[in-house]
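Example record for the data management plan.
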Amino acid sequence: MILQPVLNVFLLLLLFAPVAAIGVLALVKAPGRDRGLWVMRLVMLVALFTILLRPGIPGGATQTLATDTDIVLVVDTTASIVAEDWGDGQPRLDGVRADVQSIVDEYPGARFALITFDASADLRLPLTTDTTALISSLDVLRPEVTSQSRGSSIGIANQLLADTLANAAESQPDRSRMVFYFGDGEQTASSTPEPFDGSERYTDAGAVLGYGTTEGGPMRLTTGGVDGASGEYIQYEGADALSTIDERNLETIAGQLGVDYQHRTADAEIALPEAPSTTRNYAESGQVGNVIELYWIAALVIAALLAVELARAGMLVARLRHLRAPRPGSSSKRSDLGSLSERSETTRADGGDA
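Corresponding structural encoding:
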């Protein structure tokens, strides 16, 4: 038997001891017919105390799946990432967020790093197993401010990615490394995109994921505000500027990294590669011992005793209503008695006059 109290045991005793003392005192002073009720109430108090102690017994063992790999996510945050051609007119960034969540679910136990790029590349989140921090970072992610945009290169993150992978390989060479690149491949800088071939030797698996359509989607002006976007669209020659996907550039990046390219759409499930077999297993992750909880037994006891209390209260209410309800014929009897009394008084008065 083991205990997993929700609060410190001494604090629980401090809270329950006065109530228990009052209950015992009431039991001692109660008349014989009421002592059973106070015994029942003390049993409920003990059962509640037991629930808060969370008793259990060791038992059952479940295997946990560990993915001993480092995953680096490279996300495009240029103005084009909010082009509204994902699904039914949603920004492409919504698709990126949904796919990152799928990746997190697919590789439990992995470490994740987040790199974003627009005019420059930034390491937003170093390698960590805290997937909550990763998802939160993506939720608050905003594209570059439109007024500050001067064109960007789809390969500007190449050196930062290579450095991140190299550091991971040096610190833990036994772990595999995966890279996922998210973007539309649109090169707005006048220079040639920087190659990612320096990262290939550190990359065991991954994918380049492309977002957007050949028809293109309009882009809202992005600001530095909380919402990140205004209601107006970027204009070009008197019309809404459109951002289109460049799959040739994305396929080039995939070839440089040694991974597959995949065009993403809202109506298609993402196809994710398996983590390297040497780093995804059950045996090395071990077994986590479970605790068979027993607090539910005390909860059943409380439920049964409460049912008794409710039944007793219902019977008392019904009895009170029965006592207060007038009996049939009682009103007519009272009126008959009243008339009889009046006749007696009349007879006495007549006799006196005679």
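Summary line stored alongside the record: DSSP finds eight helices and 17 strands in the chain.
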